[in-house]
Structures are given as C-alpha cells and as structure tokens.
Amino acid sequence: MPQIYSRSNSTGVFFNPSPDRRAEFQSCCGEMFSQLVSCDQVDATSAALAKREADLLILDLNGFEHLNQLAGIGALIRGRAGAPILLLCAYEHSAWLPELMAYGTFDYRICPVLNDALQEAVRQALAVPADPAAAMQQALLDKEKELRDLLSVQRSLQRALGGIDSINIMASQICLALCNFPGVRHTAVLHMKERGDLQLVAQEARNHLDLGRLLQRRDHLLQSPLRDSFPPLMAVARGEMVLLDAPEKAGDPELAMALHDRNVRMVLALPLRAEPGGPEMGAICLMFDRHISFSREQFACFSSLAQFVSYGLGMSELKHRNDALSGQLSQMSTVDAVTGAANRRAGEDALDNEIRRARRYGLPLAVLSFDVGSFRSSNDLYGSPVGEAALRKVAETVQGRLRASDTLARMRGEEFLIVATHTSAADAMRLAEKLRAALADADLPVAGYGGSVSVALSVTEVGPEEGSGALLDRLDIALQRAKRAGRNSIELAA
Questions:
Q1: Which residues pair with 412 in a beta bridge?
Q2: Residue 69 sits in a domain of what CATH number?
C-alpha cells in the first residue's frame, strides 16, 4: 500500500526525564519535525499535547527501572485515542509492553536502537496512507488472519496438553504446537525440577538449532553464563516476559552470532507459573525468523498459552506425585513394616491368586510355613529393637533364597508363609531344608548377646480342589508337629 510521508508540517512531542536522551533524540530525529517539543515530566507532556495537535507522541521509557515509576503514562496513551504513538522500551523491560497496551494502541521499538532504525520508525509512524479506506480494509484483513493464526495455535496446544502422563512427551507436543505460529523456527520448554534445577525438557527445531549445545548444558541452566542475556533464562530469573527483537541487543556477541547463523531474528520467552505470583515452573521460548511487531491480542494470546502450558505441567507433576503417593500407600498397606515382607493380607491375597492360576493351568503349587522359635524370650532378654533386627535378618535370609515369583509374607508374630509357584511337594521339601540350614548359619543380631534362634517348618502341595482355608489349616497342624519335634525340624503336611 503506497504511503505518503511529509515533514513540512509535522509536530512531535518527546518524553524522557534525561537531558541526554532528549538531546540524542533531537540530534537524531529533530529535522523530521517542523516542531519538536521535549518534555521531562508526564504532566508537562500532557500539557504540551493539550496546547497543540501533535502528529506523533514519542514515549521513551529508558532510564526507568519499575513500571510503577511511570504513573500517568497510561493516561497519555489513552488520551491519544488511537493517534500515533511510538514507545521506546529497554530490552530488559519488554514485559511492560503488553501492560501498557491495555491503555491503547501504539507502535514500539526495543532499545537499544540504532539511529537509522529509529528514524525509520519515526518515518513509519508519521506516514499517511494514500488510500485511507483501502488501508483500513487491509488492516481488518490482517487482523482477521492474525486471529485465525492465534486460534489455530491455541487449538493445537490444547490437544498437546492431553498427555499429562509424561512431562517430556507433553513438552515435545507443546513445542510442535507452538511451531504453528507464523515465523517460528524453534521452540523450547524449560522446566524447573527439584532444588532449582532448570532443565531443557523438549525442543522443536526447524532451523537445526540445538539449544542444549548453544547453552552447553541441558540442566542447571540457571548456572549458565548466559543467564543474564538469553531470554528464556531471563524470563525464569526475572519472572516476566522477555522480548529480544534482535540477537545483538542481548549484549553477547557469540550468542548473537550463533542465533544469526540459525536465521533467528527475534526471541520471545514467557515464564511458567502454576498461579499468578507463584514460583516459576520454567519457561517457553519461541524463536522467529523475522521481526514481528506484536499486537495486544498476540501478547494476550502468548500469555494465555503460557498459562495453558503451566496448567499442563502442573497437572502432570500432580499426577506423578499422586502416583508416587499411591504407590507408597499401596506399599504401606501390603508390606510388613518390621521385616519388609508382605503382610498377612497381601500374603493371603497372593495365595488365593496363585491357587486360581495353578488350577487354571494345571501347575504345581507348594506352600511353606515357618515359625522363628525362642523369639519372645529374646525380646524379653535383649529388648524389642534387637528382636526386630533379628526378624528382619530372618526375612532377608529367606527372601534371598526365593525366586522373584515366590512370595514371603509375615502372617503373625514370628510366623511366616511362603507361596512357591511351579513347585511340587518334593521340591518344596528341598527348599525347606535349604532355608533351615541357611537360618541356622545366619549371623542374627541376638547371637551377639549370646542368644540363639531356632526355626520350625511345615510344607505342603496344594490339592486339586483345595481352598486356601483348608490348606492353611493343614500347614498349621504340621507346623505344630514340627515345634513339638524340638525345632529346627521340617514336617510334610498330610
């Protein structure tokens, strides 16, 4: 669309408290205006605008460290009612842009900016379209396309957030979805792990850029020397959006060269947090192959996308914590706290399950029971800590001689049960003898106090139609015979 630029009667108002900044702008762009008014205060700027109809308001925010120092800037933007504004904002404070856009529209440039680029920005801001109606129609078409692009990326991202089972897989899908935005050549998700360890969990490159190689690490990223110059690391450290519209503005020549070599012209990074004001969970990073002047809607969409990603990561973390907690609770409900063997309930469940499986496939199944003798007297003599340590040693000794498919359960007190799969009565008797000999040779804690532990065992093979109740009764009768036989004996249940 052809545009006409005229400087013969253009009026400009420039705001910045620093005399040096005002002098620099006057030297660079003063000749582009028929009249240029420089102001050092917001009130003076407002008064200057009230006195004359300014063609362009230039708001230079360089020199300010906090947005709350700029009280009144929003009123200046709102008061322009859509008239041209050029806002100059330092790279470190690019997060101010979307907040100020809430007051109205403006063009912006990220500082530092070269004189030629600043003059071109002023020239564009003062340009008048040759056909205003056609220009307005084109602007509406551009806005419609912009909104379609944003909606497409949003839908892709929502689909990507469906797989919260794996953070890495979900993050990879997020990176793929973000690459649908026009001009994006590389995307990455950085996630904060335990103890402040920021990790690169996923990236998608359309320009062969490896972010891990660029940063020379994939974890502990906040310890990188690029922490204060690379946008995603800054976004996490500062807790706010960072927009780098030219790699050389980061102040690191090697970083700028590496990005330019991969056709990166602009980088946008947004922090991730589970809730407003909460701790940073990481960041998403988008690298573009072109310069884009983002609108308020685009900034708002990027903010929403960051919230979606934060929600997905938060849900994934919560699921993994719940799964871990569920596993702990399950272990607590099935494992004997003293010995580490299965508890009585888990042992009975294992026995019932193996009986059904043995019956279904016609497999032999043997069950052994053993009782650790002289244990109560050991507890009375040496105390329960010594006795419990002896029981743990007994369980460890027995477990070490069982197969992975076998189950050791503590049924009551000093009595244990062994469910031995694919095992006949004869094989079970040989296993019982190995266990008896191993326990006799075991270095049990009570031995250090001059005590001793004996063991009685009973063995049986499950009958074709026998249930667990009848089986346990038979085992118990045989175990009592072994106890009466003087311990360290084995009885086969009839």
A1: 415
A2: 3.40.50.2300
- Reference 490, options 417, 482, 476; nearest CA is 482
Distance CA 83, CA 296 (A): 16
Pair 252, 260: CB distance under 8 Å: no
Same domain, 292 and 395: no
Range of the domain at 427: 344-492
pLDDT digits (tens, 9 = 90+) for 238-247: 999 999 999 9
Residue 330: its pLDDT value, please?
A: 63
* DSSP H or E stretch at residue 134: helix 132-160
Which phi and psi (to 5°) does residue 179 adopt? -70, -10
Q: Do 285 and 243 reside in the same domain of the chain? A: yes
| Domain tally, the chain | 3
Asked if residue 35 lies in contact with residue 12, where contact means CB atoms within 8 angstroms, the answer is: yes
Helix H or strand E encompassing 153: helix 132-160
Burial of residue 178 (CB within 10 Å: 0-12, 13-18, 19+) is buried
Q: What would the two tokens of residue 292 be? A: 């884009």
SS3 (DSSP) at 70: helix
- The answer to whether residues 446 and 378 touch, using CB atoms and an 8 Å cutoff, is yes
Same structural domain for residues 278 and 184? Answer: yes
Q: Are residues 48 and 162 located together in one domain of the fold?
A: no
Residue 456 counted as domain residue:
yes
pLDDT band at 450 (very low <50, low <70, confident <90, very high): very low
Residue 177 domain flag: yes
Q: Of the candidates 55, 101, 110, which has an alpha carbon nearest to the alpha carbon of residue 78?
A: 101
Q: Mapping DSSP to helix (H, G, I), strand (E, B) and coil, where does residue 270 land?
A: strand
Angstrom distance (rounded) from CA 270 to CA 275? 14
Q: Reply yes or no on whether the pLDDT at 462 is more than 80.
A: yes
Instruction: Report which of 333, 244, 346 is spatially closest to residue 291, judged by C-alpha positions.
Output: 244
Q: Nearest 5°: phi and psi at 341? A: -80, 170
Query: What is the number of other CB atoms lying within 10 angstroms of the CB of residue 426?
Result: 13
| Concatenated DSSP letters of 355-402 | HHHHHHHT--EEEEEEEEETHHHHHHHH-HHHHHHHHHHHHHHHHTTS
pTM above 0.85, yes or no: no
Q: Can you tell me whether residue 345 is helix, strand or coil? A: helix
